[in-house]
Amino acid sequence: MRVGIVGSFGSARQVIEMAVAAEEHGWDGFFTWDAISLGLPDIWDPWSILAAGATRTERITLGALVFALPRRRPWEVARQSLTIDHLSGGRLVLPVGLGVLDDLSFTAVPGQLTGLRERADLLDDALGYLERSWSGEHFAFDGTHLHTGGMQFDPSPVHGRIPVWPVAAWPSLRSMARAARWDGVVAQLRGERAMSPLEPADVTAMRNWVAERHAQARRPSTAETFDIVLQGALPDDRPAANDRLAALADAGATWWIESHWDPTTATPEALMQRIRQGPPRP
Hints:
It contains 10 helices and 11 strands.
């Protein structure tokens, strides 16, 4: 299992220094986040943070939790993602989701599609567009809401494609089916357990479902490399944190991303202290 951390809060320079420190102290991934106007302090453009982080690091995986593709123009995301991919030498991943309506970039902007089904369609359009853009071929696009004339994007991604991790709520078959078409899933629960952490039994069930889905599609090799990505805050007690990760790894999880979202406790100083302690390991 690989372990990453989110640079939740801090100045732009502080967040970039967190990425550098994360690599120095043995973390496998560093993530920023994507928002416009949420009433929270210190929100930065994720592409700018990732560009700076890409030039200051050499090994660590980089991404954002999560890119809200329904409010972004896919042709711009295609160019931005290719730029970061090449700056980092192929270390970018794209966790993606529908976006939250708490962000005023949805609700304060006339003409935005805000319904759940509409945002899901926009996400699928954006992902389809990105996949075509990374081919390096000239193409036009005709989706549910997105229609464009012909464009071409050079260069292609460093490793042929950029890994995509859609957010999905287990056991929602619709959102899980979307994730299963890509490279991994940022997993969460739904219903009464929506705010609860996933347990090893949940991860095993999810892993088995994905494997069966890929076998039906005759893509068993994809199931073997499919990432199950979990996020949350582990116990401060390191042995307890290690045991928790070991149980999740045994169940089939491949990434844990340490995420702290309370700005009163996730101060830049506290986050840097956590990063310098190094990642827990299963």
